[in-house]
Amino acid sequence: GNYYVEKTKYGLTVEGYIGNTDQNHMLQLPSLVGTPDFSKVKGFLRDNQFEYKFMNQQYITGTVKFGLTNPLHNYTLKHCFHNSTITGFECPNLVNLGNEATFQSVCELCGNLTTVSFPLLETITGAKSFYRAFKSCSNLYTVSFPNLTAISGEQVFLEAFYGCGHLSNLEFDSLETISGYRACYRIGYQSHISNLSFPNLETITGKS
Question: What is the pLDDT at residue 24?
Fold first, then answer.
């Protein structure tokens, strides 16, 4: 792939598109210390690219940013940071998400996570895109998808914020359409959400 990898005592920097050779290099890396930098990662060249890659790592800190404009393939970040110690997860450039299970359980059980940000995301069509993505993240208080207008796909947000004990605000201020089987089913189950906001929602179809 067209990539650049730099491993330092403080973490990891990756740029470009991640392919098979890059993945083999990643598998040889020891546990990371510090904040890995994926802000210049544009996409992935095959399925399951970072699946389980940094799961259970307890020395990762700070906010992880992915510069994805299009993940290109499926399951690319499934369980990637599951039960790790990152404090934030951001995708500042992602506009349209059409791949399956891209963020499935990506930050599940991340007890230090306080920030989730997808500021430009407008449409989601990939099934299970955020399935259990932030389940049991006990320090999340407010999550917003400010520009998301349409959700279309099966189980897109199924149990995405399940068991987030301090989550009080979950905001979809631009969302107009939800379709797809169980697209938002149990999205905040066993959380303490007092403000679930869909002020512009017009259409719900498909047993969402």
Answer: 53
